[in-house]
Amino acid sequence: MSPNLSLCTTRIPALRPQRCLFQHRRIPQSPRAFSTSSPQAFAATCLRLRKISNLGNKSKSLRKASASASMGPAPRVSESQMQQEGGMVQDIGMLQDTIIRPPLTKLPSVLTSWFWQLMWRNFKSKATGWYTRIEYNRCMNKRGREYYLPIDRYNASQFKYFAATHYTNIYTCFAKGDMSSISRSLLPPIHSSFNSRIARRKNIQLDWKLLSKPKCKIMSHRAAMLGHDAPDCAYRQLVVRIMSTQSVRIKSTDPANKNAAYYGTGLPEKVVEYLVLQRRVINGRQDPDWMVWGFAEETTSWRLRSQDEYWREMLSANAESR
After folding, report:
1. Where are the alpha helices (DSSP H) in the chain?
2. Contacts of 249 by beta carbon, 8 Å cutoff, 6+ apart
3. Which residue, among 204, 239, 189, has the nearest Cα to 218 in the 3D structure?
């Protein structure tokens, strides 16, 4: 397999995209532990991309039109273009073939085809993820033993610590209503999403507490190269499942409400969320720190079919536009 394949053509190297197939939609998120707005506030999803989830219900011509409309300028640009524009695109969506396996208690019976399909896709995702991390490592190490090994092979504990720290800082700042202290750790879409939610909150005060040490598990760790036009440039994403016990109370601070009181029980609640971290390597130099891409959802049968349909339509529309 060539190390210079684009993010979206790993399985079909002959297709050389001229427009963007990278911007895979962000899946609308379920409400957070103390969400005060609709779930889509976390998703930071462009409406035109969110509508792609209905591709399967449209005619063939409408599906192609929707797929074509959802593509924009590709982040795979030449080195001179990157220098002029100040670097690579930060948010490219979730990398293709990212699988987030639900806990065994949520999976269907082993007698169903969906169970084995998910297990096979999860195994294949981990295997290809191992290979992509080797290619990512080769962007920085051109010789020696590291050239043949994946990056960060023994840093699982460190990754879990990073994820738990970012997770705690995000919700602490969100409860206080000020995201400025961690703005450098967030990608622009999720940072804007949190700020917009804080602005809509107005006369509401949140009292959020983390009652237990977060338990973390790495669910996915993979990378993607940009190709010949951008040598030694790649993206890497890490999905971490975070289980914790939290409590939250909401209080109205409206001066007109003299009887302002806390709402919500404030009782401990078990919360499971999937935090996505991202890092890039540009011209052989890796970003100094991990950035928070956002939150993700578990892979379900519907979501898996939706993703497959999405990539088929993207590749088909791109091939016809050549």
Report:
1. 40-43, 47-50, 60-69, 79-85, 113-138, 156-176, 188-201, 301-321
2. 206, 207, 262, 263, 264, 265, 266
3. 239
CA distance 53 to 303: 9
Cα–Cα distance, 9 to 16 (Å, whole number): 8
Q: Which helix (H) or strand (E) holds 235?
A: strand 234-252
- 189-220 residue pLDDT tens: 999 999 999 998 877 888 899 999 999 999 99
User: Would you tell me how many other CB atoms lie within 10 Å of the CB of residue 291?
Assistant: 20
**Whole-prediction pTM:** 0.74
- Give the β-pairing of 291-296 and 215-225: unpaired
Contact 8, 96 (CB under 8 A): yes
CB 53 within 8 A of CB 304: no
The 10s digit of each residue's pLDDT in 108-134 is: 899 998 899 999 999 999 999 999 999
Burial of 12 per CB tally in 10 Å (0-12, 13-18, 19+): middle
Query: Both ends of the chain: CA-CA distance in Å?
Result: 24
- Give pLDDT < 70 ranges for the chain: 1-88, 255-265, 321-322
Token pair for 14? 């002959």
Instruction: Assign domain 40-321 to a CATH class.
Output: alpha beta
SS3 273: strand
Residue ranges covered by each domain of the chain:
40-321
Please give the distance of CA 37 from its chain centroid, rounded to a whole number.
20
